[in-house]
Design brief:
The chain is an alpha+beta fold and about 675 residues long. The chain has helices at about 5-10, 15-25, 30-100, 105-110, 115-130, 225-245, 270-275, 280-290, 295-310, 315-330, 335-360, 365-380, 385-410, 415-435, 440-460, 470-485, 495-520, 535-550, 565-585, 595-610, 620-645, 650-660; strands spanning about 130-135, 145-155, 160-170, 170-180, 185-190, 195-200, 210-215, 220-225, 530, 555-560, 560-565. An eight-stranded mixed β-sheet has the order 1-5-4-3-2-8-7-6, with helices on both faces. A three-stranded antiparallel β-sheet has the order 9-11-10. Mean pLDDT is about 80; it is low at about 250-290 and about 670-675.
Length: about 675
């Protein structure tokens, strides 16, 4: 009796077929073979019980491990908190040490205190230009005010970004990045009339001694070495803004009120005091009091800055509009030019902050980006910044859509439906936000065309490559066409443009498929005999399969398992109808209809023209029967299927059907004489 133990099955070179063959040869008679079978079954049950035991043991060990991991997770959480506190402490010490080491350019060089301020200013500018790498601006006509090293922080999580050295002049603010060798590399510059400085409340261990500088590029946050340096920077920025205003020439110098009366409410005078005043003095006092601005307007710039810092954008815009309305009614009061410039600068700062807020949503999903954009969009439209706002919104949507497309391709999701749903979402949100701005609609149309071109290029690159099966091409095109047509519900029709973008590629794929499919006809030799399905079950399966395709073979069934057509004819019926369905979906595009019909026509003629070889001595009546079935039954079914799917009459196939009916094939008499 052959060996039957687990050692045999555990060998690396174990071969089941070889083992069974040897087992049959070695066993003597049926009883011995049956006994070996029982032993193998016993071994199987033993192995199964052992496997269950090991699974149970592994499960218990997994539970124990999970408990240990839970305890370890708690300890790691505590350790993480400790490390975060240590990191904050070390970051604070590092930042302070870096700022202490970073000395000022002007302080490092000795300036002669005996020369006048103009010469000192020229000397300071010369030293700054020599220390800056890559700066090509003009500082000769500027007045140097202040400099110092700061740490730039991320405005979202207050994380240190880099070391920055600032040079403040009366008209520009120059920013330089500090390199490892303590060299200063020019980064950018801003005009002082277009910036605003906001004091940030200190938070322990996070953004202590920080200020916000609102620029044309958005909000930038800087951390000073201590509170004194922070206050000094705020004072210097205010000085630079005022310096810029004082430099502007004025058309007419209004009479200056006495210092005791400047921006102060008039005191009540007794009747005797008024009598002692001369008429001229009384009139002058009345003019001075009447020319004072309202108290709320004097404090408005500070309140607007605070509202921007606290992100109360609606209240900020309401106060700005109130100030502008007051200026439109009365701008002759004392200090109107200075207050008006501050209001104008803060309005530009608010617009920059809102645009920065709008741009920050591009790393989110499309739905989240559109939700977060509603607030800044509404405010920007009210501020007459519609063109800039719609451009930023569409750039954010582009980034979100392309990111979601990459993720969808990676996860094998329906990219076409996702894309057109996203486009519809963007269009609806865009039209809602800019409903009163008809001029912005052109930007949406241009954006849709650009996104459609990019989507088509990615579709061709990933799904419509060379040698792609025709059935897959049809599925991709149909998945594009249906959601694209749904955009008409919101007044956006991109189907014609989409067809034009895919026309060339789809035409090439149809040509390649035609050559490939026609070339495959006749590769296998056909015995030209009725098709034998071997079993009744096999026959029923084939009949049900073709019932779904719209073909009934029951009239051609003979005997229990025969179909009175060749196997090649039966298989070609399936092949032609599947190909017709794919071509019909492509033919929904008018520009592809003729190519799709040409493929079906040539495929049909290739099979219809096949003749049995002379050496086969086939029954020509049977051959004629197959060809007649193809022309009279199969082709009309294919034409009906094409018209039902494409919604168009197949003119080329109708013409072919007419030709085949007018010229029926002539059967040849069967000869029983065998050629020697």
């Amino acid at each position: 009796m052959p060996e039957a133990s687990t050692a045999v099955f555990e060998k690396d070179n174990f071969n089941a077929e070889k083992y069974v063959k040897n087992l049959v040869q070695d066993c003597v008679g049926g009883p011995e073979l049956q006994q070996t079978k029982h032993k193998i079954q016993g071994l199987s049950e033993t192995v199964s019980s052992t496997l269950k035991k090991h699974v149970y043991e592994n499960y218990m060990q997994f539970i124990e491990t999970a408990k240990e991991i839970s305890h370890l997770e708690s300890e790691m959480y505590q350790l993480s908190h400790i490390l975060i506190e240590q990191r904050n402490l070390l970051t604070t010490l590092r930042d302070e040490s870096m700022l202490e080491d970073q000395k000022n350019i002007i302080e490092e060089q000795s300036l002669d205190p005996n020369v006048n301020e103009e010469q000192q200013n020229r000397k300071a500018i010369q030293l700054i230009k020599e220390s800056l790498i890559g700066y090509k601006g003009n500082l000769d006509d500027k007045v140097f005010i202040h400099e110092g090293g700061l740490i730039e922080l991320d405005s979202n999580d207050y994380r240190p970004i880099c070391r920055i050295h600032l040079f403040l002049f009366n008209e520009v603010l120059v920013l330089a990045k500090v390199r490892n060798e303590k060299k200063l590399e020019f980064q950018t510059e801003y005009e002082t009339r277009q910036i605003a400085v906001i004091n940030i409340k200190d938070l322990d261990g996070v953004n202590k001694n920080a200020i916000n500088v609102i620029t044309s590029d958005g909000v930038r946050m800087f951390q000073c070495i201590n509170s004194a340096a922070k206050q000094e920077w705020i004072d210097k920025f205010e000085h630079a803004i005022k310096f810029h205003q004082l430099k502007k020439p004025k058309k007419a110098q209004a009479p200056q009120p006495p210092k005791s009366l400047k921006f102060e409410a008039p005191q009540k005078s007794t009747e005797s005091e008024l009598l002692t005043l001369s008429p001229t003095a009384s009139e002058m006092g009345r003019v001075i009091v009447e020319n004072l601005p309202p108290e709320w307007l004097v404090t408005a710039p500070e309140e607007i800055q605070a509202e921007i810092a606290q992100r109360h954008f609606e209240d900020c815009l309401a106060l700005l509009q109130k100030c502008e309305e007051h200026f439109s009614q009365d701008s002759s009061f004392h200090g109107a030019a200075e207050i008006g410039h501050k209001i104008k600068t803060l309005k530009g700062s608010l617009a920059s902050v809102l645009m920065h807020e709008l741009s920050n949503s591009q790393s989110r999903s499309l739905q989240a980006a559109l939700r977060s954009s509603r607030r800044p969009l509404k405010l920007l439209v009210e501020m007459e910044k519609s063109r800039e706002a719609c451009g930023i919104l569409l750039r954010v949507c582009t980034s979100a859509i392309r990111t979601s497309q990459r993720q969808a391709r990676r996860n094998n999701l329906a990219v076409s439906e996702l894309f057109f749903c996203d486009v519809a979402l963007v269009a609806s949100e865009f039209l809602r936000a800019f409903s009163a701005k008809a001029s912005c609609t052109s930007a949406l149309i241009v954006w849709c065309n650009m996104e459609l071109q990019y989507f088509a290029s990615q579709l061709i690159k990933h799904y419509l490559t060379k040698d792609t099966q025709l059935e897959m091409v049809a599925k991709v095109v149909e998945a594009v066409r249906e959601p694209c047509l749904k955009l008409r519900e919101i007044g956006l029709d991109l189907s014609y443009h989409m067809e034009g973008l895919l026309r060339s590629t789809l035409g090439q794929l149809l040509d390649e498929a035609r050559y490939r499919l026609v070339d495959s006809i006749g590769r296998t030799e056909d015995p030209w005999q009725p098709y034998n399905l071997q079993t009744k079950t096999g026959l029923r399966t084939v009949l049900k399969e073709f019932d779904v395709l719209g073909i009934d073979f029951r009239a051609y069934v003979t005997g229990d398992t025969w179909i009175n057509l060749t196997q090649a004819t039966v298989n070609f019926c399936r092949h032609l109808l599947q190909t017709t369905e794919s071509c019909a979906y492509l033919a929904k595009y008018d520009s592809l209809q003729r190519d799709a019909e040409m493929l079906i026509r040539e495929l049909f003629l290739s099979q219809h023209s096949i003749k049995p070889p002379n050496s086969l001595n086939a029954d020509m009546n049977f051959v004629t029967k197959n060809k007649t079935y193809m022309a009279e039954v199969l082709l009309p079914i294919a034409m009906n299927r094409f018209e039902r799917i494409a919604g168009k009459k197949p003119d080329l196939l109708l013409e072919l059907h007419t030709q085949l009916r007018t010229v029926p094939p002539k059967p040849k008499p069967r000869s029983d004489i065998k050629q020697l």
